[in-house]
Amino acid sequence: MTYHAKSEFLTVMIERGFLADCTDYQGLDDALVAGVVPAYIGYDATAKSLHVGHLMNIMVLRWFQKTGGKPITLMGGGTTKVGDPSFRADERPLLDEAAIAANIDGMQQVFAKYLTYGEGETDALMLNNAEWLDGLNYLEFLRDIGRHFSVNRMLSFESVKSRLDREQSLSFLEFNYMILQAYDFLELNRRYGCLLQMGGSDQWGNIVNGIDLTRRVLDHEIYGLTTPLLTTSDGRKMGKSQGGAIWLNGDMLSPYEFWQFWRNTTDADTAKFLKIFTELPVDECDRLGALEGQEINEAKIILANEVTALLHGEDAARTAQATAHEVFEKGGTGEDLPTLALSAEELGDGISIVQLIVRSGLAGSGKEAKRLIAENGAKLNDEPLTDAGLFLTADQLAQPIKLSAGKKRHALVTLS
């Protein structure tokens, strides 16, 4: 990236590795220097929580506010009813109004940790595109908005081409998604003076559509900025673990498990993740990321503490670190570990060790649990677990037991 930014926001984006592309570097830079710019990122309400894959762009919004911009978090109460087809192999399941509302409630809890909402000049806005999409008149929309879109051009977008090239069907409902997202940008510009849409690099086509539409309808100059697709050094998509998605809501993933995810970062990713997911100075991120041997583990603990403190608070970060210290260095049970609490009714005459491994989240299926045991990857109270047929009774669960999968994943099982 060779562009030398004048604005603090673009400088941060470039220095910390947030920037993939921009529709007009100079134009956006000038607008940012001239005054307070409203900018938005859209989030469809497809789950009750955001996950680590969303965190990069949440940090972009946070930096945008810290550098004097006005962030807008746009909830897709309307577009979720259609579903974004971008780079998906199949159509998203359609959600009803109640499910969408519940998902939006869950997602809003996360944004409140990173952004300041209110009535001030740079206070964030929480909006819902159902505000303008739900009341659209179809014929008027086709006449006023649809006429600005070329089907030939829409078919050329990579997100659509990849689906058609694999001969996977793309419904008319999904095909309309890109028009609705473009219309969001138009309405945000018209209603709130929004000048910038940001998003992942897979949203480039949708963002450009919105810019073109707004120019055609309102003759306003607006901008788009994308962040890179974030992968780990071994090529995996960011945000997945053996146990599934790394959720940001504490009731879906404990602060300890969240902390442990970051502590398990590979050496090669440490500097990059410190720059993107913490607010430590760039020079310090580079220094920590360049450490080697045992010292790099200290850098990973700093990474885990900083990221966890932003989301769950400093107390949760300290508790997670103390639990990890007890579990890994002292061989203790760690009372703050993810816990499966069984009732006497659930337990009945007893329960198999395979069921416990699955129910505690250390394996996705009984088959996976048995393979873990067969490959000597499972432990019971820090002792190797070799018998996949082991059956535990109430007497054996009178004291909490600790289950382990590999060296880094643990859970407690208690009898409530």
From TrEMBL:
SUPFAM superfamilies: Alpha-L RNA-binding motif, Nucleotidylyl transferase. The keyword Secreted does not apply. The gene is tyrS. Its main location: cytoplasm. It is found in: Cytoplasm. Keywords: Aminoacyl-tRNA synthetase, ATP-binding, Cytoplasm, Ligase, Nucleotide-binding, Protein biosynthesis, RNA-binding. This is Tyrosine--tRNA ligase. Homodimer. A motif ('HIGH' region) lies at residues 45-54. It catalyses: tRNA(Tyr) + L-tyrosine + ATP = L-tyrosyl-tRNA(Tyr) + AMP + diphosphate + H(+). It holds the Pfam family tRNA-synt_1b. Belongs to the class-I aminoacyl-tRNA synthetase family. TyrS type 1 subfamily. ATP binds at residue 240. GO terms for cellular component: cytosol. Catalyzes the attachment of tyrosine to tRNA(Tyr) in a two-step reaction: tyrosine is first activated by ATP to form Tyr-AMP and then transferred to the acceptor end of tRNA(Tyr). L-tyrosine binds at residues 40, 177, 181. Its EC number is 6.1.1.1. A motif ('KMSKS' region) lies at residues 237-241. InterPro entries: aa-tRNA-synth_Ic, Rossmann-like_a/b/a_fold, S4_RNA-bd_sf, Tyr-tRNA-ligase, Tyr-tRNA-ligase_bac-type, Tyr-tRNA-ligase_bac_1. GO terms for biological process: tyrosyl-tRNA aminoacylation. GO terms for molecular function: ATP binding; protein homodimerization activity; RNA binding; tyrosine-tRNA ligase activity.
